[in-house]
Amino acid sequence: MRTPIIAGNWKMNTTVQEAADLVSEMLGFLERLREVERVICPPFLSLVTVGRLLRATSVKLGAQNMYFEEKGAYTGEVSPLMLAGLCQYVILGHSERRQYFKETDRMINRKVKAALAHGLSPILCVGERLEENEAGRTEEVVTGQVKRGLAGVKSPGGLVIAYEPVWAIGTGKAATGKQANETIGIIRATVAELFGPKVAAAIRIQYGGSVSSTNIAEFLKQPDIDGALVGGASLKAKEFLSIVEHTAAIKRVR
Fold first, then answer.
1. Which residue in the list 164, 218, 245, 246 is annotated as catalytic?
2. 94 is catalytic
3. What structural domains and CATH numbers belong to the chain?
4. What pTM value is reported for the model?
5. Which of 122, 173, 209, 246 has the fewest CB atoms within 10 Å, counting from its CB?
């Protein structure tokens, strides 16, 4: 059985001190919920501080983005060499990176390859916009993003995929469990085309988009959904802990 994974994407929120305070508030409880893989993804400036707090625990650390070059004249960017040994995970291809910073599938593919080459586990985000969903193009868009994002990858290693319909991110309008599971099933089938059925059966695929403690069970009861990439709710200690606790409870029943 695939171990569920709940990752908190804090986006551009929290000062270094606020990040430390939030982790300290949650850490004791998170440590007890080991049926679930828990990942905290704070802003770059807080990675070292949060990493120190997590060092002797089972809670993992993730970055929110990464450039594909190891070093060079790329002002403001963060390289895989800077993250290797500090983080275990890195979020790549988030819809906000695609929308606001014009990241293409080709660029995201290079980032995925660089992450894997440096021992980092990518959380590859894919998802369709509202107009694409309403036009019935969800399968076309999502399978295209998966294929282009993983083009040329020989072994996906610790890859995690997050299905995040763009129309559900930060809007309070989540997909239904059935909708998300159908699309994630399509993603799993696409992974099987690329890497074979064994890899597809083992790879973890999350749902993301307005996830909360009140709807997490609806997603995790679906057979193809292995956790969640949580945005705003991960900045509220009680809410994030409740999401992880619900996930652990469902895991125990299974």
1. 164
2. yes
3. 5-253 (3.20.20.70)
4. 0.97
5. 173
